[in-house]
Amino acid sequence: MTATAAPIATPLPADWRDFFALTKPRVMTLVVFTGLCGLLAAPGHIHPVLGFTAILCIALGAGGAAALNQWWEADIDAQMKRTANRPLPGGRLRREDARDFGLLLSGASVLVMGLAIHWLAAIILALSIVYYAVVYTMWLKPRTPQNIVIGGGAGAFPPLIGWIAVTGEITLMPVLLFAIIFMWTPPHFWALALFVKTDYAKAGIPMMPVVAGERATRQQILAYAAILLPLAAAPWFIGGTGAIYGVAALALSAVFLVLSVQVGLRRSQPDDAMRPEKRLFAFSILYLFALFGALVIDRLVLA
Q1: Which end of the chain is more exposed for a tag (fewer CB within 10 A), N or C?
Q2: Furthest-apart CA atoms within the chain: distance in Å
């Protein structure tokens, strides 16, 4: 008998939704929101059309970086249940199309930001794209359990860029906004990693729960949450905001810390019983939306 050749898988026809999925729209929502909050909270004024352009560039840059992330990690995504149905592992797009799409969005976002707003904002935007697509995705993530700690800077750029788009300069306030997201990222992401650690282990990604174990991860979540509380209130302490933001920052960060204590002091449990971790992860998203929303409300009241 003659062996029958195995059928060659043919990529499914892609449509706009697959390209849109490459931009990680859920993540982009938070990126756009914090970037917009940075722009609205900054002192001074920007023409609404230019403000819209700046936020659009932030969104395109984030989408381009996300597409490059999925291009590079297509094989890894195929091994993880959480990501196996993305356009590339799902066979609906060619890898080179995702790469070219990511480069196009990234390049266009930086160019338009530079020409329409100013080149300082464009340079910081370009830095954020390189930080996520190269420093985090290609270098840190597959090599060190500190990938999220160091790579957290990638998601911390949007409010800094939004602020700079208005003011044209880097001052302490936008740096603090950057630092808040930077310190928020590890407990946010490690809470997720605790209940999907088997996926990361299967794909060979050295996330903290896989390499250091659950106990060490829980302790580090608690440590970062403790640092986040005074850091989140720092814009109020230095006089950069009013009491609306300050009270909101303290209250939200206190809840964040309480949830982190529940995670930090808990012994290892089966994945399906990790309710404190899931509560912390869910609240961490609400936390950032509410914190930056309070920043804008505070600014509007004081204006």
Answers
A1: N
A2: 83
Q: How many domains does the chain have?
A: 2
Tokens of 205: 């990604």
Amino acid making up residue 219: Q
Indicate if the alpha-carbon torsion angle 38, 109, 123, 190 is positive or negative: positive
Select from 263, 274, 299 the least CA-distant residue to 166: 299
The verdict on 127 and 250 lying in the same domain is: no
| Helix (H), strand (E) at residue 272 | none
- pTM for this prediction: 0.89
pLDDT in tens, 150-173: 777 888 999 999 999 999 999 999
CA torsion sign for 185, 191, 193, 194 is positive
* One-letter amino acid of 222: L
Give the integer Cα–Cα distance in Å for 217 and 210: 9
Same domain, 162 and 28: yes
The answer to whether residues 134 and 193 belong to one domain is no
CA distances from 11 to 82, 92, 101, 242 (A): 20, 5, 17, 55
